[in-house]
Every structure is written in C-alpha cells, then in structure tokens.
Amino acid sequence: MLYPQDFIYLTALLVIAALSLFLFTAIAGRLWCGFACPQTVYSEIFLWVEHKIEGDRSARMRLDAGGVSAGKFLKKFCKHFIWLAIALWTGFTFVGYFTPIQHLALEVTHADLGSWEMFWVFFYAFATYGNAGFMREQVCKYMCPYARFQSAMFDKDTWIVTYDTQRGEPRGARSKKADPAALGLGACVDCTLCVQVCPTGIDIRQGLQYECIGCGACVDVCDTVMDKVGYARGLVKYSTEHAMQNHWTKAQTLRHIFRPRVLAYTGILLLVVLALLTSLALRKPFKVDVERDRATLARIVSGGKIENVYRLQIMNAAETPMRFGILATGMPGLLVQVEDPITVAATESRWVGVRLQVPYEGAVAGSHPITFRLQSKDAQGQISAELQEKSVFIVPR
C-alpha cells in the first residue's frame, strides 16, 4: 500500500523508465516507438482490422476511388464499428484502473455511469479512435516530442534501420533474369514498397530521418522483394553507421555495443534500481503524522500537570491489521494518555488523539522537543517495528 508520502517511489520509477529509454535508444534506436509505444500498437491493431475488412493497400485505394455502393458502405461501416468498439473498450479499461472494474461494468450495463466516469471513458475512446484510426503517423511526426530529441541519444554505433547505398545504387527496374552488373544497376529494383509500408511515409533510401520510428517494416518488405528477384537479403537492415562504412561483420558490430555511453547508462540504471529495491526492503510497514491540537496549545489539568494534546494519523501500509503502542520521550516525567491498544485495519489510516502530561513543578517554560515512538506489535504482543516522529511540548509561562 502506497500513500502520498511515498511519492519518492513514483519518482524512482520514472527515473528508471527514463534511464531505460536512454539506454535502449543508445543501443538500438527507437525501439520504444517502433514496438512498444501505445500509438504504434493501436495503429497496428486498427490497420489489421482495416486490412481484414477492406483488403491490402491496392484494394483500399480502389475502394476509396470507387463510387458509392452498398458493398463499400458495408465495409466502411464494419470497419468503423469495430474501431469504435476497440476504442470504447480501451476507455472502459483505462477508467477501470480508478473505479473498481466490476462496479464499473455494472454501472455500464445499467446505464448508470457517473458524469466523470462517462467523460473519461468517452475521452479515452475518442483519443484512441482519432489517433489510431486517422492521425496515426501524424502523432509521431508532429505531436510526440521524443522524435525531436532522439538525435541527442544516437551515435554512429547505435543500431538503426539503414539502407546499403553501395550495394543498392544505382537503383532501377529490371527483369528477374537480367544481370544487374551488365545493366550497371545496384540491387535496389526501385519498387518503392519500402516507402509504401513506412508508417511515417519516409524513403529510407535517403538516409536516417527523424521521422523513422525503427519499426522495421521496410526491412521486412525489402527482404521479401530480394527473395523474389533472387538477390541476397539485407539491402535494408538493422545496422550501425560505422558498420556500414567499415563493412564490419555482425560480431564486430555487436562488440561496439559496450561503449562508454552505454556502460554509463547501465551503471546508473543499476544503482537506481538497487537503491529502490533496498528502500522497499527496509521500508516500515506503517507511517505516522503528528499534528498539535490547534485549539489548545497547553493546559493545566487535574493533579497539577501540564497537558498538550496531539492528533496522530497512523497509516497501515501492510495487508494485515496492525496493533500499535505509543511512547513519548524528551522530558522528565512525560506521561502518555491514549487508548490502548490501538488497532488499524489493513491498508487503512486512522486518527488517534494523544495527550501528553508533565508535572507542573518540574517544567521549564518554553518549547521543548519531544519524540513520539510508535511501535507495531504482532499477535503475541512482541514489537515488530518502530517508527519515530518529532514534535514539541509547550509549557506556558
């Protein structure tokens, strides 16, 4: 159970995510963009639905160019209906992270969604439908900031999608039986399929461009073309600039992965992960906040004692109920008046009133630092953990 006071753990997770992104990008380029980004994943899902209903690229172009017909209307209707269903399901599951999913499902089936729940379900659905169905690569090219600062994490030993210019140029069409050397041509048959399958519409043969998300679609389609014409694969492939320039083997290229930048990212990442795991292992299963009673700073009670009143918020971060005992130190004769024992249910918090008293004759006027000691006890009454929190005791003049 994590409380707002545990925000440091969220910070550590974000730092780990950022360092991981830097590390993976330095090694193999935009792996996140090409294979894990929700925009890419949902675009692939929507494209798969579109391909199943309307056919391949050529069939879709003929369908769009054709006139209005019942068949065209039915295909378009089915495609958008499935897109909307996927989008609404996405919105429903996202809101299910914040509203218990079973309760949310009952609200949906009974048409009894709250206003905020309804807003966020349709907001996420609209964003999914628009981004994955229509905007697609425009999000990557114009809205996502990652494409803009990726070059700061690239170097000439980063694995990227590359085109072998020396082997492919000069490009040109030819028959399968023709000898490209006799025609003075390279291996590229200039089919432009690599451009057609690119989700961002770039031509990889013009070199690395910031729009490239490293998905490898051009690699796959080019290998297919090479197989058909009987040439060796790898005209478009994953490699590094140094490997292409120096004609390194795959083993030589892999050896250059472990360079200073990568080792620095790896070392820092491991240290942060180790620090997070150590902190979680040593983390106390409960927390306490101390607040003074704002209505009364100090008062004299029966028995000739000076009393200060406090309110303690005890937060149980464990998944089992816990019993607590409260002690206080810092002044001679300091006496704790509190209900005993104090029990806090699993993963819940509770406010407890505590009164501290000291003998009047032995108290010096002023503000005195004190320490609350909160002790958790197991079923046998043994102390399992202890937490200290500082405060002050006020003695009036």
Furnish the topology, listing elements before pairings.
Blueprint: H1 7-28, H2 31-36, H3 38-54, H4 57-65, H5 70-95, H6 101-109, H7 115-135, H8 137-143, H9 146-149, E1 160-163, H10 165-168, H11 180-183, H12 193-197, H13 217-229, E2 236-239, H14 241-246, H15 250-255, H16 260-282, E3 286-292, E4 299-301, E5 305-316, E6 322-329, E7 335-337, E8 342-344, E9 349-359, E10 366-377, E11 383-395
Antiparallel strand pairs: 1-2, 3-5, 4-5, 5-9, 6-8, 6-10, 7-9, 10-11
Helix pairs in contact: 1-16, 3-5, 3-7, 5-7
Q: What do you see in this structure?
A:
It is a single chain. Helix content is 46%, strand content 20%. With 397 residues, the protein is of the alpha+beta class. It folds into three domains: 30-150, no CATH class; 160-239, no CATH class; 286-395, Immunoglobulin-like (Sandwich), CATH 2.60.40. Strands 3, 4, 5, 7 and 9 form a five-stranded antiparallel β-sheet that branches. The protein has a four-stranded antiparallel β-sheet with strand order 8-6-10-11, with no helix packed on it. It has a two-stranded antiparallel sheet with strand order 1-2. A hairpin with a 3-residue loop joins strand 4 (299-301) and strand 5 (305-316). The radius of gyration is 33 Å and the shape is elongated. The two termini are 44 Å apart. The model has no long low-confidence stretch (mean pLDDT 91).
